[in-house]
Write a structure and sequence with these properties.
The protein is of the alpha+beta class. The protein has 3 helices and 6 strands.
Length: 178
């Protein structure tokens, strides 16, 4: 469910970028910032990286919980959207960050009626910009082990995780040489 939600966001942003900027390439990618060995996780620069930085359980009480039964859990995702552009393209990084904020400002609620590619097991996603102080943002980047990039944090509310609907995900293998 998490992968489906973030992939849907990337796909929607790419459609927006293609229409707004008249480009053919995908600019938004779902990826970590760094690999476990400290190397950069994506190969291409000039991208908007969508990174999951935290998962929290929704704290709204559910009065319908039956003790000793397996109930779905509602979670919120904290998603960092970073403009990963080369140093000479810093103004372009700021431009894309503005596009990201503008896009989410105009479409912060994703439903199946306004987002046909939204996974059938997701009813609705709502994006809310998080106000992080400079200190908190520094802590996020330090936890990621990376140097700061122009970025914005959003809280993606609310996914319902039910063990009965989790599917296996096998990413497509590309670039394999024969």
């Amino acid at each position: 469910m998490i992968q489906e939600a973030l992939s849907c966001l990337a796909e929607e942003m790419n459609i927006y970028f293609r229409n707004k900027l008249k480009i053919n390439e995908d600019k938004a990618v779902v990826s970590g910032i760094l690999n476990a060995d400290g190397s950069i996780a994506i190969r291409e620069e000039n991208k908007v990286i969508i990174t999951l930085v935290n998962v929290e359980r929704e704290t709204v009480k559910n009065n319908n919980v039956v003790p000793n039964t397996s109930q779905p859990v509602n979670i919120n995702l904290y998603v960092l959207l970073s403009a990963y552009f080369s140093a000479v393209n810093y103004p372009e990084a700021l431009r894309f960050l503005s596009f990201v904020i503008g896009y989410v400002q105009q479409k912060n609620v994703f439903t199946r009626s306004n987002t046909p590619q939204l996974d059938s097991n997701i009813n609705k996603l709502v994006l809310e910009m998080e106000n992080l102080s400079t200190e908190k943002m520094n802590n996020v980047w330090a936890a990621l082990g990376a140097k700061y990039m122009p970025s914005v944090m959003y809280k993606m509310r609310m996914l319902t995780i039910d063990g009965s609907v989790i599917r296996e995900y096998r990413p497509e293998v590309s670039g394999v040489q024969q």
